[in-house]
Amino acid sequence: MANNGPTPIYKSLDDIRQRKQELRSMLQKDNGEITQLWQGLFAPSRPSTPTNKIQGFMTKGMGVVDGAILGWKLYQRFRPNKKAKSKNWLARLFG
Questions:
Q1: DSSP state, 6?
Q2: Does one domain contain both 38 and 52?
Q3: Is residue 57 situated within a structural domain?
Q4: What are phi and psi of 17, to 5 degrees?
Q5: Phi and psi at residue 2, in whole multiples of 5°?
Q6: Which tens digits make up the pLDDT trace of 4-42?
Q7: Quick check: 19 and 8 in contact, CB under 8 A?
């Protein structure tokens, strides 16, 4: 927590209540800003033109293809080798 200056000196309970109210209003304002930014961060963007829609489909399709290729490569790398009945999985992993 950052210290913004010298520690305030309170002389009465009213001073404490006033400071508490100020801090509460600052927190509520910050909470509203954070909520707005959070919702804007995860809001889906809508393509406005057909070109953007096609680009979005192609991006998602290439992601799926990339994931499938990665899965196939990992399967080939770590599948049990039928010729060398080795039970040492570390040798297969780092070999």
A1: S
A2: no
A3: yes
A4: -60, -40
A5: -85, 140
A6: 777 888 889 999 999 999 999 999 999 999 999 988 888
A7: yes
Higher pLDDT among residues 85 and 76, named by residue: 76
Residue 24 inside a domain? The answer is yes
8 by DSSP, 3-state: which?
A: coil
Domain span including residue 31: 12-43
Q: What total of structural domains would you count in the chain?
A: 2
Claim to verify: residue 38 and residue 55 sit in the same structural domain:
no
Q: In this structure, what token pair is assigned to residue 69?
A: 């290729």
Is 7 among the domain residues? no
- 8 with 14: CB under 8 angstroms? no
The residue behind tokens 């039928």 is 82
Residue 12 DSSP class: S
Average of per-residue pLDDT values in the chain: 84
The C-alpha atoms of residue 80 and residue 89 are separated, in whole angstroms, by 9
In this predicted model, what pLDDT tens digit does every residue of 45-68 receive, in sequence order?
776 788 888 998 999 999 999 999
Structure tokens at 27: 């927190």
